[in-house]
């Protein structure tokens, strides 16, 4: 199959019939993303789609601005709209590559939403897949980690597609050379301070042993198929066991403990991620401790959540301490998933959304009539004017106000699946 035909198949499989055809392309100017840009441009011309391009300038190298300008000039020659997205958030602490990656996806997601794009295409290749698998193998990752980079993933409200994931880096560069197109080389790709650079070199050493890029990418594909089976089983368990209540999750303890160990761990990790809105699950050892606490009917805190026994069930609620300092204006999204709203014209300046907490709960004696547990209500959203409680919709003191979740039970179930 030709490079272009394979690209079209992968892209359109990822889009899954989405209309209209509005696709963003993340372009750094390197060989992979430049090839992606040219292939996407041809696809848009033939399919009647619309392409937008964006380059993230992390502000970490003085040459970066000039490189972004070169990408902009190439896009102009191709007749494509291009945007430079600037990040100036590095404070010199933490993992530089991890922080830059998070910022890159956040900026691209904001750009995609502003431009009403159906998806954003990324230029990851089979080489990237192999490097990722080897790095995760070194960390002792399980099925999820070793399934590698997903060709299709929805996160931050955006569909991310990697239509070149089965293509080698060498093949893309041969394509560019045949087109007479040059590309930029990022000097950080040779910087031995970065784990991925050392992994790339290690792969060259492993190739004579039969542990090559193609083999590792094939392993990732097989493990991805296994992961999908495990996710389907976890989805079925979530559907049968869990009930979403006041933003928390209630589940039967005995039914949970009867699940196979891998499904039990996945179910618990998903509940904690969903309630806390965290991007990643807790570590394996922490999940095992939480399982033991559930079995022993002990309270526990993990991942910004409270796990507490409730009769024959257990509840996973937002931990009050995790949201005690979270405050937004009335009507804005609170804790990443709640919004307190009133009828038209009801909003007043000075009203703030904060957690209900102990003091707020004491002001609402009728909370016991709601059927919600104390653990759920302490961390529930409430409306305040200074130190005075105005409304606590989930605790039974709503007045003209209501609390709405930006993500409900359908999202709890559907987000179990990575595709």
Description:
- With 419 residues, the protein is an alpha+beta fold.
- The protein has helices at 3-15, 31-47, 64-78, 96-114, 126-138, 143-146, 169-179, 195-206, 213-241, 253-257, 261-276, 284-295, 320-323, 357-362, 374-378, 409-414; strands spanning 22-26, 50-57, 81-86, 119-121, 152-155, 158-161, 242-245, 248-252, 300-302, 305-310, 313-318, 328-329, 338-341, 351-355, 381-385, 388-391, 402-405.
- The chain folds into three domains: 3-219, 3-Layer(aba) Sandwich (Rossmann fold), CATH 3.40.50; 246-318, Uridine Diphospho-n-acetylenolpyruvylglucosamine Reductase, domain 3 (2-Layer Sandwich); 325-410, no CATH class.
- It contains 16 helices and 17 strands.
- Strands 3-2-1-4-6-5 form a six-stranded mixed sheet, with helices on both faces.
- α2 (31-47) links the parallel β1 and β2.
- α9 (213-241) packs across α11.
- The longest helix is centred in the middle third of the chain and has 29 residues, at 213-241.
- The protein is globular, with a radius of gyration of 24 Å.
- The chain starts with a helix and ends in a 5-residue tail after the last helix.
- The model has no long low-confidence stretch (mean pLDDT 91).
